[in-house]
Specification:
The structure is a homodimer. Chain A is of the alpha+beta class. Chain A has 13 helices and 17 strands. In chain A, the strands form three sheets. In chain A, strands 9, 10, 11, 12, 13, 14, 15, 16 and 17 form a nine-stranded antiparallel sheet that branches. A four-stranded parallel sheet of chain A has the order 3-2-1-4, sandwiched between helices. A four-stranded antiparallel sheet of chain A has the order 5-8-6-7, with helices on both faces. The longest helix of chain A is centred in the middle third of the chain and has 18 residues. The radius of gyration of chain A is 21 Å and the shape is globular.
């Protein structure tokens, strides 16, 4: 029976209990949706704030099946699941949103590449490779360095390598063989901006698109979101068109995030995620409906909420701990003293570089919102990438 | 040790687990504040969504003391506590915000009256009475009918009687004697508008005031909030002045709500609550910082958040169930289809007239926001007082 027709509180099961699940638990309270978590550990970020927590590895099939049996619909905090197990759950009659098929695509960059080609969706030149020689041939033809990516398992800069020459390609290939990785090689595009589009899609195809975001990345990790992205309107329209086409191509249900490059006047698909995503964090307090609420509404097949910004400009900055000694509970009072900044902590123990929260500021323009968000990150003891760049003599 | 100086997550204990505590649990998640509840029942509104719940009556002293021992600061969802027990907790070194003294005032309308007189704060003519004859003398002097109120224990229209004549006064007096009630008699003012001011106050006296709200009451129950109240600026300023003076007089820490009348061009104090209050529900999604977050910030002695509205007009309507058969989980999909309406359900079983949630709409003007909020209440099967008034031939 579809979840939306049950008359008791619908039960949404989330596989994984990181900060995305935590913020979804928060969004579920006003909707009287009962969120249940399958957590790897009872102390996971979301498990700390949820009443219904099962603890088991997400790939232990008996645990997963028992968890699914207690939920009306199953959704995901991460992609580190076994797509074959998800298919078995669907065959047993469980409702998965996104589906096992969508999750299999979200896990695999080689399958995504095949889809982008089939749907003529713009992406950097790339190909799957089955030998070191194919990497070298690609580099010799399109120019060095090349980008090599693991088809599965990479995130936040992991599983991505900049390969300068044939010798490095041969070394990387051996390492990848050892670790059982499948690789893709990609032309290194000149990147003018990195942007993202977050949207929610219901089972029947209804879509709600959030404003285009500029993302500021350093070493493959997102530090900052600027919304709306300061971008030519034609590029904004193109980014939205691409994101909608991706949503249809992967048949997502729930939130989809499409990370893109602007390169030589074109918008190109970089990565996707079929779940709430860091690129959409501005929506929590910065838009009329957060991505977490819209994820729940989409997976329950309820009407989606409006995505309008609540101010002319919204800036979100991630809080990446600068040390293990970061004292958040002293820092938070200083951060809250910055006017009009919303602080979101994830309940995580600080470690150098670990993403432990984010802050969001509304403003009349991006400069004003950025200035206050940055002050709040500093107050919390987070890394401010501009300062690091200054110390290293680089140009931010 | 004050809560704000501990370096682990601060633990805020709430006595009571109704919808006010539920929305405070929600507000605590991004601040990484650990909320603990002392609930009368494990199925209470807030207990459904909180990880740390103790179940006991709020006036069972051993349970209350054990609960306090696990918290850095204690606060309240309601006034149905024993102020002497609270004083004993303070003597034992526990931090109560608001204090036992403030709670004792909040519980007792006779003590409040004494304070308003001492601080020359405007209020309807009223007095404590110790016999039926005193009610009759008051009515004969100021005119019938009079309003009689129980000094303690009343809310949502309970503990308030409109008394038309001497015979009714005598009957009420006998009933009150039976139930051990202390009474006040009050002149029935011509009421032009009912308004409220909600504010947050830190231990050191820092105050953040929310915009003045117009409240629409029927039979002593709040149905609707209109913000900002469509009111003469001089009356807005006077309402704020009074609310600030009340906050100082009762030495509140946390949220204070002051309900007031506008009568013959004057602003008069009606009721107060020293906790998050229905009059402040518009702030959840309608203002930059909700009253629930500011309550936590105040009781932890953290800087208060800005109270600016997120739109020119905000309307909140309560959802009072029209019958026990109200099917919320079908109704919610219809309510969410109304554009730009935020739905807040309390996880309560519908019963006729029971307050089971509220909806908030942002708009460019009050009429637009009201229209959408009303549609959402209808979709949820809630009572729309204008329709009831029409059916009964009354003028809304």
């Amino acid at each position: 029976m579809p979840a939306a027709t049950v008359s008791r509180a619908p039960r949404v099961g989330i596989v994984g209990a990181g900060q995305l699940a935590r913020m979804t638990v928060q969004a579920a309270i006003p909707l009287a949706v009962q969120v249940r978590l399958l957590a790897a550990s009872a102390n996971d970020s979301a498990a700390q704030v949820c009443r219904h927590v099962a603890v088991a590895p997400p790939t232990d099939f008996p645990s997963l099946a028992a968890f699914a049996a207690g939920c009306d619909v199953l959704t995901f905090d991460h992609e580190l699941v076994d797509a074959r197990q998800l298919r078995d759950l669907e065959r047993a009659g469980h409702v998965l949103r996104p589906t096992a098929e969508t999750m299999a695509i979200a896990q695999n960059k080689a399958r995504q590449l095949a889809l982008w080609r089939r749907h003529a969706l713009p992406h950097p030149e790339k190909q799957s490779v089955s030998s070191a020689e194919e990497i070298v041939a690609f580099g010799d033809e399109r120019g060095w360095p090349v980008i090599v990516k693991a088809a599965q398992g990479g995130y936040d800069g992991r599983g991505v390598w900049v390969v300068p020459d044939a010798r490095a390609a041969a070394e990387l290939w051996l390492q990848a063989l050892d670790r059982g990785l499948t690789l893709l090689v990609e032309h290194r595009m000149p990147i003018e901006r990195e942007i993202a589009v977050v949207l929610a899609r219901r089972p029947g195809g209804e879509i709600a698109v959030y404003p285009v975001v500029e993302t500021v990345q350093r070493d493959g990790i997102c530090h900052e979101l600027r919304v709306p992205a300061p971008l030519d309107p034609a590029l904004v329209a193109e980014a939205e068109r691409i994101a909608r086409a991706v949503a249809e191509a992967v048949k997502v249900v729930g939130i989809l995030a499409v990370e893109m490059f602007v390169s030589e006047g074109r918008v190109l698909i970089n990565e996707i995620a079929t779940r709430p995503h860091n690129s959409g964090h501005f929506s929590l307090g910065g838009a009329l409906t957060s991505q977490f609420e819209n994820h729940l509404r989409a997976v329950l097949d309820w009407p989606l909420g409006r995505t309008d910004l609540l101010a002319p400009a919204v800036v979100t900055r991630n809080v990446l701990a600068s040390s293990a000694e970061t004292d958040l509970h002293t820092g938070i009072a200083a951060a809250l003293a910055v006017p009009g900044v919303m602080v979101h902590l994830y309940g995580k123990q600080p470690r150098p570089g670990r993403k432990i929260g984010h802050v969001t500021a509304l403003g009349d323009d991006l400069a004003d919102a950025r200035e206050r968000a940055t002050r709040a990150v500093e107050a919390l003891g987070g890394i401010v990438w501009e300062r690091t760049a200054e110390r290293e003599g680089a140009h931010p």
